[in-house]
Amino acid sequence: MSLEARSRPARKADADVARLREDFPALAQKIDGKPLAYLDNAASAQCPRSVLDAIIEQQGMNHANVHRGVHRLAERATAAYEAARDKVAAFVNASREEIVFTRGTTDSINLVAASLGGSLLKPGDEILVSGMEHHSNIVPWQLIAARTGARLVPVPITPAGELDLEAFERALSDKTRILALTHVSNALGTVNPVKALTEKAQAAGALVVLDGAQAVPHFPVDVRDIGCDFYAFSGHKMFAGTGIGALYGRAALLDRMPPYQGGGEMILTVAFDSSTYNVLPYKFEAGTPNITGAVALGAAIDYLSRLDREAVAAYENELLAYATDRLLAIPALRIIGTAREKVGVASFVIDGIHAHDLGTIVNDESVAIRTGHHCAMPVMDFFGVAATARASLAFYNNGEDVDRLILGLEKARELFE
Amino acid sequence: MSGLKELYREVILDHNRSPRNFGEIENADRVVNGVNPLCGDKMTLYLKLDGDRIGDARFEGTGCAISIASSSLMTERVKGSTIEESLDLFNDVRDMLTGARDPDDRMEKLAVLAGVREFPSRVKCASLAWHALKSALTSDKREISTE
């Protein structure tokens, strides 16, 4: 790769991004007199005003429990909640009974692991995970493996941070019951070829669970085209609030699976000798859900749907290339994760300066990045680092955000010289 | 920038660049592993006791500048102190890091660690070594965590 920095993304895009930035109140603020450069989107992305408005309207005017009351507010709350489900279903090209609202990706994966794992797995069965998974796509499987006697099999990654495809083929066998794989790595930015991998895993007789938390904010996802059995994602990484997410599951599978949690909402009838369960997707939504969260997620999808998502993805890639070039011009800086297919993430280390010190020093320039192990300790172990600094992009970031990061990193180098 | 200059004082940068007492003590009387699970910082503290005094103190590990400098300064300071003096010092340093007291003359060089008080997310980086010290002197626990 050339060390000569590419020029900042084109002026036309700059103007478009400047307009989009006005939709995000958080981005307009100054911290200690310096404009915020928010480059921690892979941890949590900011909300546009339309999402904030939806939260206030739902919580302020339509607040009531769903699916129960006969009064007007209960009707409004139910309609808004179910309209959000329709939006989520359309967003990933699923049908509405295949969309379960959850607390987020972690909750979605735990649901699948507990319900499917408990009913499907037996001693000697294997669950394949990749070496680039977030802890949330490792630990739920470890727990269910310990309960059932199944075995967790990690598939290694390459020094570029891509899945080792030959090792993947070798690891697949007639013992493989589940492939649990991230669509996009949160620590490295690697985009996995999930369609091809799903096909291979299903041909071997496995079910495929994809972690889409880092994919949906960046590009359109079509679960039917991918062909996966489950797809999990979170609201707060795609410009809605925390505590809401969704699980897509193929209807035929969800129908056969036992409930995850018991309680109100998920039942049809309850007697002390037995209960009957509600239809999909309600069977998996015990208790009063995060109604406002779901409505906000729907509003975030509305926002994203108004964008030209192909153009947004192209702009983000251009900005990532610019950020990568400028980072590589810093002496002793190494990028962790150099996959050919990457989105949104530049993870890096600088020799002699710990990631936490980098994070604190760039924060002094009001630049927000993440530092640490990114809930992906196996990835850190693989690259032989304790922690990395990670700048992660959204479509509302611009060249100036990147330039301010570089300025902060240069200050860190001066300080530690 | 003033807060940042307070945090990364020359003493801190120097102890990060050239940590004192870095390495293992073979036949140590006390060995404690400390981790900060939030950031992955790890340190191992080795103490050699000489009666009721700390005869030697060394450490190994990886971490940020604050964490390495704090370990280095701690081992430098407690070497030769009695166990009781070291435990008193632990209390004073903890109070200084959390802002319960201001650094005074008794702190000597350790006063530089007070810079973390303006950076709540970094207090644990400075305190890891001190919790390892307390654990080494007061309990049989060989693993400690900042959480």
What does this entry look like structurally?
The complex is a heterodimer of chains A (417) and B (147). Chain A folds into two domains: 134 residues, Alpha-Beta Complex (Aspartate Aminotransferase, domain 1); 254 residues, Type I PLP-dependent aspartate aminotransferase-like (Major domain) (Aspartate Aminotransferase, domain 2). In chain A, 40% of the residues lie in helices and 17% in strands. Chain A has a seven-stranded mixed sheet with strand order 4-10-9-8-7-5-6, with helices on both faces. A four-stranded antiparallel sheet of chain A has the order 13-14-17-16, covered by helices on one side. A two-stranded antiparallel sheet of chain A has the order 1-2. Chain A starts with 10 loop residues before the first helix and ends with a helix. The N terminus of chain A is likely disordered. With 147 residues, chain B is α+β, with helices and mostly antiparallel strands. In chain B, strands 3-2-1-4 form a four-stranded mixed sheet, covered by helices on one side. The longest helix of chain B has 16 residues. Chains A and B meet through helix 12 of A and helix 1 and helix 3 of B.
